[in-house]
Design goal:
The complex is a heterodimer of chains A (about 425) and B (about 475). Chain A has 10 helices and 23 strands. With about 425 residues, chain A is of the alpha+beta class. The chains are: A alpha+beta (about 425), B alpha+beta (about 475). β3 of chain A pairs parallel with β2 of chain B.
């Protein structure tokens, strides 16, 4: 059974039982090469269906999820229980469908994903030549079919090439970088791997520096900027605001909350990034939109449900329950990498981080831990490499303190930056650092 | 015994045989099904509900020292056998540049069926009645406690995990594990300041867990904690001092700073680009990391625990693992791959989240072994210190060395007494300092449910972590 037939089967079950429904079927075929200690640790290959079913009747809602090619039993249960539920305060009628189909398929990637053969990847990226390294490289073809009760009948297909590599010059000197694209782009991949190699080697060459706990000027690499901006994007979801898990409030729209140097845009229509989509999970046409423009909070991200509760319009960012961005772009500044270091003057260059956690979502209090090269910069030049440290403070202070934005941008997506993002370096004028 | 299995085990045997015919040195087929029901309430109102069904077959093969994994969400023979081909191809391709051949340790493998008993079986009560039960618990809460409770998001899930594992070297394990999980997030405000509390409760068993996990008591206690935080708590003292931490913080600390660093795949670098490495690359087994009071155990076999299992996903029988014994670094957590690489035996740590996931080294239920102190005895000779009962923020570096735990409900201790609540005391401590500073251990033992993340693609698996109250001498509060 092909994907369209499978969707039709599900529609057949639900259409006579519930007046409103959305059926989304994602067919994903992918292959991932994992590297550890400079050699493949495993090749993983998947062929899978993800089926999401939204059903609504008398303002009662169900949103079920299946990863199984024969979901009929679970579909039956979903529509059967709905009469016994209570109306949901989140309910809103499905919006009129306005999305268009899309196809953004790179044949090379499609073939690699389907065959599960990683031989070409190994050769093109010269993975047999790498020093001590670890990482993951994924190729996939993702097809989507969406049907709604109010007439959306949409299909999309896109390919996805993403990876990240961590290079160890020694156990204390490492660098990590990533890449992401809708096209097979071994040149970009090799450039990213080289960046990781250079960071590891630079850290090894530099003297060890101990840093003290205190306030610092910090240059965030695109890897770190991506991780922290993802927290900003999550906070901008209407669902986060409704559920009390955001440091933004609806009455702050139009207010200057961040530095005027900072513009963050949700770019579902950016063809180079793999979050590309012309329709959202409610069948609404997507559009590019600034979330923060020159420091002003321009919009929250909405589906029809969060829009109703927060008295706004859908922004074409459904998630059935939780609105989300597709691709993130940070608008570049005009300083090249060297100039960014000069403007930093004395401070730290954080090249990678992980484990961002919030003490208090509504107040935006967080900390995150640096990993890989943490470079001590003196007079605009790398002067030392430090052990891991923590960046601590308020997310609202962090976005206010963006002093400069780099000109060069990198397409980033990895374990700690799940949204495909096009990002420059960001210079933060003051943020807390704690160190052992 | 195990019911409702949708696959003929013969199909799994056929898949294993096909891989061997193709030339694989090892093959494994795992039928893996997770079905469940969940719903979310916002301020007591049902937002929505969901059924889930995740069913498929996973194949692993080793070919010429390369490892391949493939899976399918189809139970049709053609699709399963086609997955064998993909796993074989991936393994063979990677073997062309493998320098250190991958292999599996030889083990005494299980041939067994087991099932977790449910006192009140899932399915014996209409799912809509479960919603009503949880709503009644919510309605019974007293919200007039002197703070403005802005939002309570409350989620409930039950699921049943069925597995059949067949390996080319003789394992056959069929299992059924039902679980109940509840989480909530409370956001409250007072005097223009906001705060929130997130908590998760979980165990294996049936719907009796709704009562056993004490949802109402936990919610009430967390509302009280938020009131203390927002209304009463002041600035904490900072600097080096004695600190008592409660079971919730102790459990998290041993999970992060003893459990994760003891995962042998992390020590070997297999997760280096994702979840990171381990200080146990430098500190050897047998080396002292703590005081004699520090013993940390990971035990999958605790009945009713959220991380419960009797055989791992490579067919190895489970047992308690001593990660730190009386202050000395002891066992790693091993699956068969890491055990082979380190020339030792697996201790049954291989777990896969669902059919789309490879079995990797995971914790189950990690805890600090209790001692014999009462709480009053732990604080009675502290001249000036802090007691951290609950936390919100935490993190740890990717060598699992320096961790940070920031208190939500916490108190200043003076002259052996809790004198006032304090806000956000941040305990930052490295793993050696942490375990070395323990000089007294409580007689209580509590567990917390969690979803532990690791792997690529990410595999969140159910775990417990816990411990008693413990006392740390002379650690740093920021």
């Amino acid at each position: 059974m092909n994907v369209v037939e499978l969707v039709e089967e599900i529609v057949k079950i639900v259409k006579d039982t519930v007046p409103e429904y959305v059926v989304i079927l994602d067919e994903k075929t992918s292959t991932m090469l994992k590297i550890a200690n400079g050699q493949p640790s495993v090749v993983q290959s998947w062929k899978e269906y993800w089926i999401d079913l939204y059903a609504a009747k008398d303002q009662k809602i169900m949103a079920s999820s299946f990863r199984f090619s024969k979901p009929e039993e679970a579909v039956q249960k979903t529509v059967k229980i709905i009469d016994k539920l209570q109306p949901s305060p989140l309910y809103a009628p499905l919006p009129d469908p306005s999305g268009k189909p899309y196809s953004l398929v790179d044949k090379t990637l499609e073939e690699m994903a389907i065959t599960g053969d990683v031989t070409r990847l190994i050769e093109d990226l010269e993975l047999g030549e790498l020093p001590n390294s670890a990482g993951a490289i994924t190729v996939s073809i993702e097809k989507r079919v969406l049907r709604t009760s109010n007439g959306a009948d949409l299909e999309g297909a896109r390919t996805h090439f993403n990876g990240y590599m961590r290079i160890f010059a020694d156990d204390d000197s490492s660098g990590q970088w990533s890449w992401t694209s809708t096209k097979y782009d071994p040149i970009q991949a090799k450039k990213s791997i080289s960046t990781a190699v250079n960071l590891a080697e630079e850290c090894k060459k530099l003297p060890r520096e101990k840093i003290e706990t205190g306030k610092y000027r910090v240059l965030l690499s695109p890897m770190v900027a991506g991780n922290l901006i993802e927290s900003v994007i999550r906070a901008a979801s209407g669902a986060s605001v409704i559920f009390g898990m955001s440091f933004f409030r609806p009455d702050q729209i139009g207010q200057q909350l961040a530095s005027e140097k900072l513009t963050i845009i949700d770019r579902p229509l950016m063809e180079s990034l793999p979050g590309f989509s012309t329709f959202d999970d409610e069948g609404v046409a997507t559009r590019d939109k600034p979330i923060i423009e020159r420091g002003v909070l321009k919009t929250l991200l909405h589906n029809s449900k969060t829009a109703k509760l927060l008295k706004a319009e859908t922004t074409g960012n459904a998630g059935i329950i939780w609105p989300t961005a597709f691709n993130i772009e940070v608008v570049p500044g005009d300083l090249n990498d060297e100039e960014m270091m000069e403007v930093l003057g004395n401070g730290l260059y954080a090249t990678n981080n992980w484990y961002t956690r919030f003490q208090n979502y509504p107040e935006g209090l967080f900390s995150t831990v640096t990993r890989d090269a943490l470079i001590v910069v003196k007079n605009g030049k790398p002067a030392g490499c430090a052990a891991r440290a923590r960046i601590t403070g308020s997310m609202l202070d962090l976005i206010k303190n963006v002093e400069a934005v780099g000109k060069t941008r990198w397409p980033i997506e990895w374990w700690e930056v799940r949204l495909p993002s096009l990002l420059p370096h960001l210079l933060i004028s003051e943020i807390g650092i704690t160190s052992e | 015994m195990v019911k409702e299995v949708q696959v003929d085990p013969q199909l799994l045997t056929k898949a294993v045989d096909k891989a061997l015919e193709m030339g694989a040195e090892y093959a494994e087929a795992r039928y893996h099904r997770v079905t469940g029901f969940s719903f979310t309430l916002m301020n007591g109102y049902l937002i929505g509900a969901s059924y889930m069904d995740s069913t498929g077959v996973a194949i692993r093969t080793i070919v010429n020292g390369g490892l391949g994994f493939a899976s399918t969400d189809s139970l049709e023979e053609n699709d399963v056998l086609e997955s064998v081909g993909r796993a074989f191809k991936g393994a063979r391709a990677s073997s062309t540049i493998v320098k250190d051949r991958i292999g599996l340790s030889r083990e005494r493998l299980g041939n067994a069926k087991y099932e977790v008993r449910q006192q009140k079986p899932i399915g014996s009560v209409d799912d809509s009645e479960i919603i009503t039960t949880i709503q009644e618990i919510y309605k019974s809460l007293d919200m007039n406690i002197g703070i403005d409770v802005k939002n309570v998001l409350l989620g409930f899930t039950y699921n049943i995990e069925d597995k059949i594992i067949v390996t080319s070297d003789g394992a056959f394990i069929e299992s059924r594990i039902p679980r109940v999980n509840m989480f909530y997030s409370i956001t409250a405000e007072h005097g223009g300041e906001r705060a929130n509390r997130w908590n998760q409760l979980g165990g294996t068993g049936g719907l009796e867990l709704i009562e056993d996990l004490k949802l109402k008591e936990n919610l009430e206690d967390d509302l009280r904690s938020l009131k203390i935080y927002l209304v009463e708590a002041g600035t904490p003292p900072r600097g080096k001092m004695d600190v008592v931490i409660g079971p919730e913080v102790v459990g998290l600390a041993v999970h992060e700073s003893a459990g994760h660093p003891s995962e042998a795949d992390r020590v070997m670098g297999r997760e280096a680009a994702q979840a990171g490495l381990s200080y146990r690359r430098r500190m050897k087994t047998g080396e002292k990391i703590g005081s004699e009071h520090a013993t940390v155990i990971d035990d999958p076999t605790i009945p009713g625990s959220y991380g419960f299992y009797l055989y791992d996903d490579e067919g190895v029988p489970a047992r308690p693992r001593y990660l730190i014994r009386n202050g000395v670094l002891d066992e790693f957590l091993h699956n068969r791959e890491t055990a082979y690489a380190m020339n030792t035996q697996s201790n049954a740590s291989a777990r896969a989240k669902e059919w789309w996931a490879e079995p990797i080294v995971r914790m189950a239920n990690t805890y600090f072994a209790p001692g014999d102190y009462r709480f009053e005895e732990l604080i009675e000779d502290i001249k000036h210190g802090i007691y951290i009962k609950k936390y919100m923020e935490w993190n740890i570096d990717d060598y699992r060395w320096v961790a940070r735990y920031v208190g939500l409900e916490a108190y200043e201790i003076k002259d052996g007494r809790l004198v006032r609540p304090v806000k956000n005391p941040a305990l930052e401590v490295n793993s050696l300092e942490f375990y070395s500073s323990v000089d007294a251990v409580g007689r209580d033992l509590e567990f917390q449910a969690g979803t532990c993340g690791k792997g690529e693609p990410g595999q969140g698996v159910p775990v417990w972590f816990g411990g008693p109250h413990i006392r740390l001498r002379g650690v740093r509060i920021l």
